[in-house]
Design a protein that fits this description.
This protein is mainly β and 804 residues long. It has nine helices and 43 strands. Strand 33 and strand 34 form a beta hairpin. The longest helix has 18 residues.
């Protein structure tokens, strides 16, 4: 299991302030020298806020205009903030004897342009990036500025891309060479922690263009060069060129042509921006000892590709496509010229698909789902540290879903409801730690930057909590409500639930894995608890378990995520009687739609994290033809410690149709009434009446499947599988090593031989509307940074191929 350090570097080492303290570049990037601030000689603890005393912070917003544009500036900067640390770190969340201490730490953060000036001591508390609030059909026009001061983090501008090939970040505790397994398994560039001052933005949950200035995670924006200590790339310096670009983007991405992908080439950007970028990159390349960036961009431009590297500023412009038809499916796409079956993995794995895709037809096949989405930095090698620093934010996309809720609860009601951004704030990603004092769960959860904040409700009030788990590591398992509270879940991962699933969710516990989000209707008790000393003001904790695998639910204690203060005059509110109506394109995917299958294997073996046996290489790993539907078997060959890797795919959501979790347990009551726990799956004879399921140890592992799902699901052509949930993150059940009765382990004859049984889920997805390249990865982001990611190519009418 991935672990964290016993004490954060700036509190433990006089030569380190945050994350990693490395050598400075041999020469300054600009005329001004980069100076390392003086460091304390010992831990600098400062006062922490009192738990459950801080009210939930309302996050600043960037809001759409009446003419359908979400226009604003997001600045990436840094400052010292007050962060909280569980002490001693060896304690688990909620364990007796643990305390919270606070210390100032340099962190990177997102802010609105007008809020981006770093604060001076006393140290500010953390705050997520601005909440983006748009509507389906809007065009997104964001100016992204990287104004991190590299001198606050030492040699953080990609020493991993130095011309010496050193590769990864280093720490005095030995990373990346302190791995306990075979030395050959140590982290190596690019699958290691590196480049933590470089960033971009991934718009998590958007169904849109994955290239150029859309949801493009391959773009890398370096910090602005500096003069006299100040960034030279500013909002004012790019305003003219970006205004010109956004005007052209609006003209090119008209709602009448929702499948148009623009810009196509660098020449579509304003010349005054591209000329300036070339000059900045060339100036950056003059720094001794680094990999030159402009030659990479220049080569990509000659090949007709979108260039990768930028300095200081980048414009994002894309439309949130609106599905305007009243029915689904849309008119059929034009026929294609060929029809063949081919292998569909370029980088490894297994799968076939019929080449029956189509060019864009001018009609959307899905469209953007309204709901609660989010955004975060997605530079490979630094996602874990940047997200844990707080480089995340909510992205609320409104639509008819909101209209239906507002019709019931009152005009504009959804716009006033709490937005809750969960994070595990810290400065040390996993594996940056010593051998002692390891913890598994990561830092304590914060909500909008605060630990256990207060949320105010009136007796009988219904609120809609838009909850986003932006944690770089752990899931939050919401324990079923008590003390008179009730809840119903409206949406999962930004996609609304069917009415059946909405009603089934009442007062049920649920898991938000890292990257998941939920819209939750919460109803306060009609009358305060009689045990409250003040009947006009009672507080109630909302409890969660910090979770990376279902096994944690029995080994970790519930902890308060937030506290609800119920006070004031009672109101008489009810849950909406029926879920909001769904867009037509959210109809369930049927078996007869599926035209291809794949098997994709995630595995953690010691410190090595892979997909299909490979670490991320820049090659295409999965190829899908545009406008086809595929069913993937997503496998987890991690056998211990138990890790349910959260599988995430960009651009298109998916539906889960089968789950096989070989570590599941059953509670059995014997004839005396004594209850015991037994494995659900066994290679031996099932205990009578236990519900255990027999697996054949001699069978092909691909034949092992959940015992409560028939081997063949008989369905008529066109018949729908009812009420499936749409996801873009789903934990892959961990694998199990099950004993085989009557055998002996050759290494320990006192024990039976075990056979590894991988967990898996099967998902179906419509790879529609937008061709291009994007990624799948584990949303335990330290795993992604260290190799558990690969590229998906959605190809319009061409054969699969590999590329670098």
């Amino acid at each position: 299991m991935i672990e964290t350090s016993s004490l954060h570097p700036s509190l433990r080492e006089p030569r380190r302030r945050c994350f990693l303290r490395r050598r400075l570049p041999a020469a300054a990037i600009m005329v001004a020298a980069l100076l390392v601030p003086a460091l304390p000689l010992r831990a600098q603890w400062i006062d922490c806020p009192t738990p459950a005393q801080q009210e939930l912070v309302k996050i600043p917003e960037i809001v759409r205009s009446d003419d359908g544009k979400l226009r604003g500036t997001i600045v990436l900067s840094d400052e010292e903030q007050r962060l909280a640390f569980r002490q001693p770190p060896s304690k688990k969340p909620g364990e007796a004897g643990s305390t919270i201490k606070c210390a100032p730490q340099y962190v990177r953060f997102f802010r609105r342009g007008e809020d981006a000036v770093p604060k001076s001591p006393p140290y500010p508390d953390p705050l997520p990036g601005p909440t983006l609030r748009a509507r389906v059909g809007d065009i997104v026009e964001l100016t992204f500025l990287n104004q991190i001061n590299p001198s606050d983090f030492g040699d953080s501008i990609d020493r991993g891309e130095s011309d010496t090939g050193t590769g990864c970040d280093e720490s005095s505790i030995g990373y990346p060479n302190n791995l306990r397994e075979n030395p050959k398994d140590k982290d190596t560039f690019p699958n290691c922690f590196h480049g933590s001052s470089t960033a971009n933005i991934h718009f998590h949950g958007t169904h849109t263009n994955p290239g150029s200035t859309g949801d493009n995670v391959f773009v890398e924006v370096r910090p602005s060069l500096r003069f006299d200590g100040k960034p030279i790339v500013t909002e004012a310096s790019v305003r003219k060129s970006f205004d010109e670009f956004f005007a052209r983007c609006e003209e090119s991405l008209k709602p009448a042509d929702p499948l148009r992908q623009w810009p196509h080439t660098w020449s579509d950007l304003p010349a005054n921006y591209t000329v300036r970028q070339e000059a900045l990159l060339r100036e950056y390349d003059e720094t001794p000892g680094i990999k030159k960036l402009w030659p990479v961009d220049e080569k990509q431009l000659k090949e007709g590709a979108w260039p990768q590297y930028y300095v200081g500023a980048y414009p994002y412009c894309f439309r949130l496509p609106e599905y305007t038809l009243k029915t689904w499916p849309p008119p059929p796409a034009p026929a294609v010229a060929h029809d063949a079956t081919v292998a569909t993995h370029a980088g490894g794995g297994e799968g076939t698909a019929e080449l029956k895709g189509a060019e864009p037809s001018g009609v959307l096949r899905m469209g953007q789902a309204p709901g609660t989405h989010w955004y975060h930095a997605h530079k490979h090698g630094s996602t874990a540290i940047n997200v844990s620093n707080g480089m995340t934010g909510a992205f609320i996309i409104e639509g008819k879903y909101d209209d239906d809720l507002n019709k019931y609860y009152g005009k504009g009601w959804t716009g006033t409801q709490p937005v809750m951004v969960i994070n595990q704030l810290g400065v040390t990603p996993n594996l940056e730690r010593g051998a002692a004092g390891r913890t598994d769960a990561g830092e304590n959860f914060s909500v909008n930057g605060r630990l256990n904040p207060l949320v105010a409700m009136k007796p009988g009030e219904v609120q809609m909590w838009r909850i986003v788990n932006t944690s770089f590591r752990s899931g939050a398992y919401f324990v079923a409500p008590g003390q008179g509270f009730q809840w119903m879940r409206l949406a999962q991962d930004g996609v609304q639930l069917s009415d059946v699933n909405f009603k089934r969710s009442k007062n049920q516990p649920f898991l938000l894995a890292a990257g998941n989000r939920a819209d939750l209707l919460v109803k306060a008790p009609n009358t305060p608890d009689p045990a409250c000393k003040d009947p006009q003001s009672c507080t109630y904790p909302i409890m969660v378990i910090v979770d990376v695998d279902p096994s944690d639910l029995t080994s970790l204690n519930p902890v308060p995520l937030l506290t609800v203060k119920v006070s004031d005059k009672a109101v008489n509110m009810q849950f909406i009687p029926q879920a909001p109506s769904s867009p037509p394109f959210l109809v369930d995917i049927t078996p007869d739609e599926v035209k291809g299958t794949k098997k994709i294997v995630f595995a953690t073996k010691g410190p090595v994290h892979t997909i299909d046996g490979r670490k991320f290489s820049g090659e295409v790993g999965e190829v899908v033809l545009l406008n086809t539907v595929e069913e993937w078997k997503v496998v987890n060959e991690s056998y211990g410690p138990l890790i349910s890797h959260p599988f995430h795919i960009h651009i298109n959501p998916f539906q889960v149709v089968e789950i096989f979790s070989p570590n599941d347990q059953l509670t059995v009551t014997d004839t005396t009434g004594k209850k015991t726990t037994v494995p659900k799956y066994t290679f031996g004879d099932p205990l009578p009446g236990s519900g255990q399921c027999h697996l054949d140890p001699k069978a092909n592992p691909d034949d092992w499947r959940p015992c409560d799902v028939p081997a063949k699901q008989v369905q008529k052509p066109g018949e729908q599988t009812q009420n499936l949930i749409w996801w873009d993150v789903f934990p892959i059940p961990s694998g199990a090593k099950l004993p085989v009765p009557g055998t002996k382990d050759p290494n320990d004859p006192t024990k039976p031989m075990t056979i590894p049984v991988p967990g898996y889920f099967k998902m179906r997805s419509r790879f529609v509307d937008y061709a291009g390249y994007y990624v799948i990865h584990c949303h335990i982001l330290a795993h992604e940074d260290r190799g558990m990611m690969t590229i998906v190519e959605v190809a319009p009418l061409r054969s699969p191929y590999s590329h670098h």
